[in-house]
Design a protein that fits this description.
The chain has 16 helices and 15 strands. The chain has 456 residues and is an alpha/beta fold. It folds into 3 domains: 7-42 and 151-321, Rossmann fold; 47-143, Rossmann fold (3-Layer(aba) Sandwich); 331-455, Roll (CBS-domain). A 6-stranded mixed sheet has the order 1-2-10-7-8-9, sandwiched between helices. Strand 3, helix 2 (74-86) and strand 4 (89-95) form a beta-alpha-beta unit.
Length: 456
Amino acid sequence: MPKYNNILETIGRTPLVRVNRLASRLNCPLYVKCDFLNPGGSVKDRIAVSMLEEAERQGKLKPGATIIEGTSGNTGFGLALVGAVRGYKMIFTITDKQSREKISMMRALGAEVIVCPTAVAPEDPRSYYSVAKKLAEEIPGSFYPNQYVNQANPAAHYNTTGPEIWQDCEGEITHFVCGMGTGGTISGVGKYLKKMNPEVKVIGVDPIGSIYADYFKTRKIGPAHTYVVEGIGEDILPETMDFSVVDEVVCVTDKECFVTARRLAREEGIFTGGSGGGAVWAAVKAAANFGPENFVVAFLPDMGMRYLSKIFNDDWMRENRYWTSDNLITAGEILRRKNFEKLVYAEPAESALVVWKKMAKMDISQMPVMEHAKVIGSISEDRLTNLTLDGKDLKEVFVREIMGPVLPVVTEGTFVDELFRVLTKETPAVLVQTGNGSSGVITKYDVVHALYQSLE
């Protein structure tokens, strides 16, 4: 083993590791770049050294100076590593949604940490951006790296992370999947990979609530909404984000990020945070129809140790309804288990016999009634059975005459316990609206069957 003069020299050269069980249905290999194995536990070690060394070269950072930065935690810890080795003072601002482990780790290295509210606009004087900027203006001899503007951020990944990935996969990479926070990693790595092979596709991962996905489509900055996953997504457009290298953006939910991170730990022995979980979830989704000629690399930015009180805490997962145990299956998951493709419905002018045959063919017991693309009622197998027993000729009975009330509507994120409150003897089915605008029907039987499957 080589000898190092200090801990900073051990940054980089993190391994590519194949994902096996979580990628078992893919036809192509999926590897993860384990940047959580940097000495500070995250990818941000790379940019911390890059930004501070560049500032030292330019004379902006003097011995004994104070480093001030707004961070989601990982950049702060990386800067704190450099500060500890080189004798700088450190003040970091962080939002109150970040895990307490991150705050404790920065303080352990001697940094002062100021916690700011999450739910305020970036320009609000209380925001962690504004507080960091104000401190940098007020404290003499301070240096404000500002990772959202500093081009040494993406340069670190162009010079180190990108070449490592290219060399380790021997140029076979076809897709790079990466969360977007400051944009430094995806911009620097993406630029390098496309220089080596312009055909490499770069896929950005964005949490629902962030501005990036909409900006990628429209090139307009829309409103941001609160999300829980840390380290990815933004409510501003950083100068370090280069969309010219991004080919596609996949949106992820907090739950998808957290559950996948837990699965990586339990099924692969890979202990990463929620942003890494989101990258793997997006990679598996994107690669679902790829052939064996593809080679996918997903990026894991930080370690799971920083989320022991949150993602890897069973009570926290249950309280926040991210847990996917038997009693927290969602309506969307039940719909997908039915191999749902498109909504099957009856029209008011159809005969009851035609509708019953349709139900039998599709093996369904409940159906919405639609007219001019609007749901106006519902029809059930029980209703048709009772009409037959009453001696009615179903060829002569039309749906409009016998339809019941409109089915209750739920979202795909509705949990089982909420579904059971809606599904009663009088209301045996609900209409589930999915995120892509389509709808499907699930019945009480579907819910019970999904619960039973989860126990097997």
